[in-house]
Fold this protein.
Amino acid sequence: MNKLDDKELEKSKSHIIVEIIEYMANSVVIKTIFKKSTGNISVMSFDSGEGLTEKISPFDTFVQIIEGKAEIVIDHVSNLLESGMGIIIPAHSSNFIKPNGRFKMISTVIKSGYE
């Protein structure tokens, strides 16, 4: 079960990102921080046992863990990230997120530069 909140955060106001999203039982929750035609930034929470299935994005994506830890698999190479760590998932690479307990992350997708 996924829950999506497309309402952007209030501009010109500071936010504690790890606190703007909560865990939901058996779910991945996604909250949009900022969305433009050139890309978007979202914060996501994953309950224990929840992950994202394998996909290939046409755009570069920067993922940063802001609470807990997660395994990010890019082109069959596993990367264990802990709070404060980030990784760039290159465009056109297969990737998925394996559950490793509860965690929160920020996902930044950059769409410009591919036109």
Observations:
- The beta strands are 2-5, 28-36, 39-46, 52-56, 60-74, 77-82, 86-89, 94-98, 103-110.
- The chain has no helices and nine strands.
- The radius of gyration is 14 Å.
